[in-house]
Design a protein that fits this description.
The protein has six helices and 16 strands. It has a six-stranded mixed sheet, with helices on both faces. The protein is globular and about 60 Å long. About 2% of the residues have low confidence. The structure holds guanosine-5'-diphosphate (GDP). The site of guanosine-5'-diphosphate (GDP) has 16 residues, from helix 1.
């Protein structure tokens, strides 16, 4: 868009990595996401996890990690198809007793197309039939070669079910993130991407969004896709009200007029009128495009 402002180096600060877990059905994506969530919830004093939004954060060795909590490839591909790049790192889960399957290949292709670094989690290591060597062998075909075999792909062996290997998995994510030198500018107005959104009977439009740059605050005038509004309230991944959200933070917001789509970009403007003008311009652009396609 026309609003891209470059951040100067001195404003850039380290930000948490945003991680997506992909892999073949039943290889353990959901179980792994749950195991990670339960291992280290940020603000665990809040008394457990009261609400489940489409993304969450954990902390390991003082470093936060953001997980997009929508297993499967749909969210990832949908967001990518809409031009959004939200993921910094992809974890490919492969069941040690099953090996590389069609959706494993698909996941590798998606990650490579998005130029995301890959960490392989060999899951279900607790099973007597687990054969991690076979998984590693199969993955060499895709140029995912373990370090001990002279390659540069990180493999971790886990049992999501038993919660084993989770710490090491988080360590590997932190290491990989360090190499990526992920930065953002918390001082500017927020921008980012919609993770999911719905219409709630009582609260109106509720959207889980990922702040990718800047800091989002209550009261901000926001344009999301072709809708707009003002951030009336914000909650974090464990349903605590928050007043602001910095880079790589997922938050649930209310106050937008219509329901945006997963993958829609959002951007905060310094005043309401501008936000509204831009949203209306986008709306009429979309209408014009639609008319063109119906005429054609
Ligand atoms: P998804 O389809 O990739 O999200 O897979 P799920 O997380 O739903 O797991 C599929 C099945 O495998 C469930 O019955 C899980 O309990 C089981 N499972 C997941 N991880 C493990 C593991 O580490 N060990 C064992 N034995 N079973 C697991």
């Amino acid at each position: 868009e026309d609003f891209v402002i470059e951040d100067s180096d001195e404003d850039l600060q380290e930000r948490p990595p945003v991680v997506t877990i992909m892999g073949h059905v039943d290889h353990g994506k959901t179980t792994l996401l749950d195991a990670i969530r339960h291992s280290r919830v940020v603000n665990s004093e809040a008394g457990g996890i009261t609400q489940h939004i489409g993304a969450y954060q954990v902390e390991k060795d003082g470093k936060k990690i953001t997980f997009i909590d929508t297993p499967g490839h749909a969210a990832f591909t949908e967001m990518r198809a809409r031009g959004a790049k939200v993921t910094d790192l992809v974890i490919i889960v492969v069941a040690a007793d099953d090996g590389v399957m069609p959706q494993t290949r698909e996941a590798i292709d998606h990650a490579k197309a998005a130029e995301c670094p890959i960490i392989v989690a060999i899951n279900k290591m607790d099973k007597p039939t687990a054969n991690p060597d076979r998984v590693m062998q199969e993955l060499t075909e895709y140029n995912l070669i373990p370090e001990e075999w002279g390659g540069n792909t990180v493999f971790v062996k886990v049992s999501a079910l038993k919660g084993e290997g989770i710490d090491e998995c988080l360590d590997m994510i932190n290491l990989a993130a360090e190499m990526e030198e992920l930065k953002a500018n918390p001082k500017r107005l927020a921008s980012g991407t919609v993770v999911e959104a719905k219409l709630d009977k009582g609260r109106g439009t509720v959207a889980t969004i990922l702040v990718q740059n800047g800091t989002l605050r209550i009261g901000d005038a926001i344009v999301i896709g072709k809708t707009y509004g003002r951030v009336r309230a914000m909650a974090n991944d464990i349903n605590q009200e928050v007043k602001e959200a910095g880079p790589s933070t997922p938050v649930e917001i209310i106050g937008i007029h219509e329901v945006p789509l997963a993958g829609d970009p959002f951007m905060v403007f310094s005043d309401d009128k501008e936000a509204r003008k831009i949203a209306e311009a986008r709306e009429s652009n979309v209408k014009r495009e639609e008319q063109k396609t119906t005429k054609a």
